[in-house]
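Tip: read the tokens left to right.
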């Protein structure tokens, strides 16, 4: 009898009413045949099902040739705890699993909903099942059917499930510095190897003369005419004379002591830990692939010069090529640095530090009042720098554009302010007087602009301006235009008030000198080239760092394999082979551990190893089964806990410890309820920031409706709400389902559903920073960022009608995450923190702020820009503005669109689309 497995499509008659949850079959189409593979399995992908469809695509079984009368056919889980019985279609001669429906009918679509508690096997599940036939009482296993995820490679799915257990172990472990495990894995394995060597030496001596205790035991002995009188034996001899041996009780040494058992327990823990960290564990393979994928991503996003020079990402490990390219970048940077030092030193040599200086006859005292609200825009520009001409400050304003509300002035010995009948003007400070520049900088710098956002401010400048020949009142020069353009050129500023409060500055020369050396940027020719060189060098260093990290992780994984082999070899010694551990024992010092020299060495090694591994949960790979088994739900839960794990493990956030989150994951893994109500909100904090992560919260809307987004991030700082971000999980294979499905998911969910929602509860009445989907297709956006943008879908104006504005910048996202590609989520979260919430001086790759070095530079047009370098993880980024004054933050892995392929440093402004060829310095080419 032969068995054939087919893909079939079963049609149900929704005009009828379900009886016992079943509808009549209205049709059945038999499709392609599934061949058995070399492992004796039928491998079948999950498929997508929709409530809108009146047919189900599933497997059918047909028996060919001579066959016994089948009483039933069923699918059974490997352990037999779950079975699903098939029904038979005589017309098609095929067995198939029935679909069950709820009694609730969808009125609009006129169909019955699926009974979610008993879906057809393989519709949303992944795993192995046995195909079983019953003939009488005889149970025959005919083969195995393996259902694999359709939207994920099987290895990714297995790693996803394994990671749930690993994350649970980390949560139970309560390791507040889990990043240490990932960052210093090489250091940890070396420490473990050193301690295991000491323990091995001690065990070899212990095995020769192990510690033992006397235990009263019953044995059989031959009767002897001499020796110690044994009452038990004499009684036995009297009752059963003539036997060759009799029972006797005596004290015998046994090695099953607490000390020996504890050493065995530690060795078993080490085997378990080394297995998890070894080369064959799914989580280790996933982590290694994640590093490799991140390396490839950074190589794709590196400049063409680097790509052409290296040829491939792996070639960064070639020391000769790396050193040659790195040296070229370093030389460009050093030339610029030398020019910057020369300009700064020359400018500082000419300055004056006195708080007041003698007034020239061509100067006149005025008071100038500027009223504004918010940061400067394209028409209101400010720059302040050192150059070969000395110290210069310049503020160009246009009253027709916010934030300028008014500009007016009063001269000495006059009694009222004059507001010029002009829309335009300039305020300059050309002076060698350092205190004047400090005051001006404190009033108008970017940080001061940021602090003025959302509030009205009045700036009053008191000082001396140079008299202008032919000027208005001899202090301001009008230009010949429809409206006069007033130019006020200050030579000395005596004081500046902000809303009536005077800006207080230090009078110490060293503090004023520090302002010139550390705060005021230097304008030097070639500033764009230095930025390109910095970026290129940091791209190269990033590639080198990831390649080194991958090699170290591979080396550490192999060393863990050797640790496991050593520990297993020790466990096979006679001393441990027969020891039975019935329960876990606490780590307690004993007299033997403290006073026996050999056991003392073992005790010290046991403690050191225990500190490193902290094993708290033991799960074999065969136990990596999640009871719910629905792949889309597993993807949701893995996404939730992986995001938490990344934030705490790699990005510097601390988990406000609560047993709730650990218990909810534990219940999920052990077969408990998978309901969202069983997952409490997760609270994380970083310095003064807090983020609360909600899983499927109920958001009541105006009216009677409500929404339940999968993940909501609510951000607060200093006890004040700062906004929230929403991600909705989509288990998708867009390559199979089509690009239109991607567009629909973004438009209908991210933009229409959550982007436009009006929450009723004050709990959710906070600015919506971002609304997006997080899906499982790791291929769709990998190469074509412009076609399927991750962090700002409105870059693609051919697929979405909504126009990019300052209000919706980076608001709508479509990111993905799978075990081997988690860096996308990290970049999305960095976008929220530094772009939306303004924390751009923190390294959100690792969570460091004290290790971040800030450098203030100028663009070729003289506008300020900030370079940031993290000494902890070697991350590099730049904060600038586009030509229209919109904020841009550039990274080696940008969340802005990288338009220019030859130089990945140039990006398109998400607010206005600025960022074309006009920005690019085409003269900069690095010759290697």
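Filled-in amino acids:
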């Amino acid at each position: 009898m032969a068995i054939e497995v087919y893909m079939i499509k079963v049609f149900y008659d929704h005009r009828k009413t379900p009886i016992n949850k079943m509808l009549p079959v209205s049709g059945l189409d038999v499709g392609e045949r599934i061949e058995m593979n070399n492992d004796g399995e039928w491998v079948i992908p999950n498929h997508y099902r929709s409530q809108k469809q009146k047919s189900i695509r599933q497997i059918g079984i047909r028996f060919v040739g001579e066959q016994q009368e089948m009483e039933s056919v069923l699918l059974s889980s490997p352990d037999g705890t779950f079975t699903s019985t098939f029904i038979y279609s005589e017309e098609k001669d095929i067995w198939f699993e029935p679909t069950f429906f709820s009694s609730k009918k969808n009125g609009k679509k006129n169909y019955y909903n699926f009974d979610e508690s008993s879906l057809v096997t393989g519709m949303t599940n992944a795993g192995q099942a046995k195909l079983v036939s019953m003939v009488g009482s005889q149970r025959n296993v005919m083969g195995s059917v393996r259902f694999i995820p359709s939207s994920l490679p099987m290895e990714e799915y297995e790693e996803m499930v394994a990671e749930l257990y690993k994350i649970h172990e980390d949560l139970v472990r309560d390791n507040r510095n889990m990043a240490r495990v990932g960052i210093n894995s090489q250091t940890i394995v070396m420490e473990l190897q050193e301690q295991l060597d000491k323990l091995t030496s001690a065990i070899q001596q212990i095995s020769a003369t192990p510690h033992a205790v006397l235990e009263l035991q019953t044995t059989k002995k031959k009767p002897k005419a001499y020796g110690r009188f044994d009452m038990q034996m004499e009684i036995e001899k009297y009752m059963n004379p003539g036997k060759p041996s009799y029972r006797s009780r005596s004290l015998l040494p046994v090695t099953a002591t607490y000390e020996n058992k504890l050493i065995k327990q530690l060795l078993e823990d080490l085997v378990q830990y080394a297995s998890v960290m070894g080369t064959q564990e799914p989580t280790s393979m996933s982590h290694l692939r994640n590093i490799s994928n991140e390396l490839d991503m950074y190589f794709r996003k590196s400049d063409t010069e680097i790509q052409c020079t290296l040829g491939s990402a792996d070639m960064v490990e070639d020391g000769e090529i790396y050193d040659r390219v790195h040296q070229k970048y370093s030389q460009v940077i050093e030339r610029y640095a030398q020019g910057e030092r020369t300009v700064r030193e020359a400018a500082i040599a000419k300055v004056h530090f006195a708080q007041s200086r003698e007034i020239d006859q061509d100067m006149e005292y005025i008071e100038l009042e500027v009223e504004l609200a918010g940061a400067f825009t394209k028409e209101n520009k400010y720059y302040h720098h050192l150059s070969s001409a000395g110290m210069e400050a310049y503020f160009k304003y246009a009253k027709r554009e916010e934030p300028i509300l008014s500009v007016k002035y009063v001269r000495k010995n006059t009694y009222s302010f004059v507001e010029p009948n002009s829309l335009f003007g300039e305020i300059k400070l050309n002076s060698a007087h350092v205190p004047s520049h400090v005051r001006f900088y404190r009033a108008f710098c970017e940080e001061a602009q940021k602090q003025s956002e959302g509030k009205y401010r009045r700036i009053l400048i008191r000082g001396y301006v140079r008299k202008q020949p032919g000027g208005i009142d001899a202090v301001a020069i009008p230009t010949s235009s429809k409206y006069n353009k007033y130019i006020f050129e200050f030579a000395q500023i005596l004081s500046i008030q902000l809303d009536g409060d005077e800006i207080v500055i230090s009078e110490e020369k060293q503090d004023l000198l520090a302002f010139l050396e550390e705060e005021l940027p230097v304008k030097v020719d070639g500033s764009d080239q230095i930025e390109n060189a910095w970026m290129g060098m940091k791209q190269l260093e990033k590639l080198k760092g990831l390649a080194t990290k991958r090699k170290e992780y591979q080396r550490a994984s192999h060393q863990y394999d050797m640790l496991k082999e050593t520990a297993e070899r020790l466990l096979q010694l006679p001393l441990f082979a027969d020891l039975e551990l019935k329960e876990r024992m606490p780590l307690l010092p004993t007299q033997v551990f403290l006073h026996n020299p050999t056991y003392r060495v073992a005790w010290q090694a046991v403690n050191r190893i225990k500190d490193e591994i902290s094993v708290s949960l033991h799960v074999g790979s065969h136990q990596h089964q999640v009871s719910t088994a629905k792949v889309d739900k597993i993807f949701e839960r893995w996404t939730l806990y992986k995001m938490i794990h990344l934030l705490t493990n790699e990005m510097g956030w601390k988990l406000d410890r609560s047993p709730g989150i650990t218990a909810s994951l534990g219940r999920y893994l052990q077969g408990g309820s998978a309901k969202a109500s069983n997952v409490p909100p997760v609270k994380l904090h970083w310095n003064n920031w807090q983020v609360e992560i909600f899983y499927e919260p109920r958001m009541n809307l105006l009216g009677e409706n409500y929404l339940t987004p999968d993940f909501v991030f609510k951000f607060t700082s200093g006890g004040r709400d700062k906004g929230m971000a929403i991600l909705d999980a989509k288990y998708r294979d867009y390559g199979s389902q089509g690009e239109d499905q991607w567009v629909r998911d973004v438009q209908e969910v991210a933009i229409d559903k959550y982007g436009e929602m009006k929450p009723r509860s004050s709990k959710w009445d906070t600015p919506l920073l971002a609304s997006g989907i997080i899906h499982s297709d790791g291929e769709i956006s990998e190469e074509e960022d412009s076609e399927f943008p991750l962090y700002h879908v409105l870059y693609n104006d051919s697929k979405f009608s909504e126009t990019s504005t300052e209000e919706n910048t980076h608001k709508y996202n479509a990111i993905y995450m799978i075990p081997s590609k988690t860096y996308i989520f990290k970049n999305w979260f960095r976008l929220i923190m530094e772009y939306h919430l303004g924390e751009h001086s923190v390294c959100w790759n690792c969570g460091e702020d004290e290790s971040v070095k800030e450098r203030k530079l100028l663009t070729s047009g003289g506008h300020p820009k900030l370079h940031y370098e993290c000494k902890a993880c070697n991350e590099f980024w730049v904060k600038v503005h586009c030509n229209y004054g919109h904020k841009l933050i550039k990274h080696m892995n940008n969340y802005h669109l990288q338009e220019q392929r030859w130089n990945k440093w140039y990006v398109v402004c998400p607010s206005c689309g600025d960022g074309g060829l006009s920005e690019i310095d085409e003269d900069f080419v690095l010759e290697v």
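Residues 2-148 form one domain. The chain has a mean pLDDT of 83.
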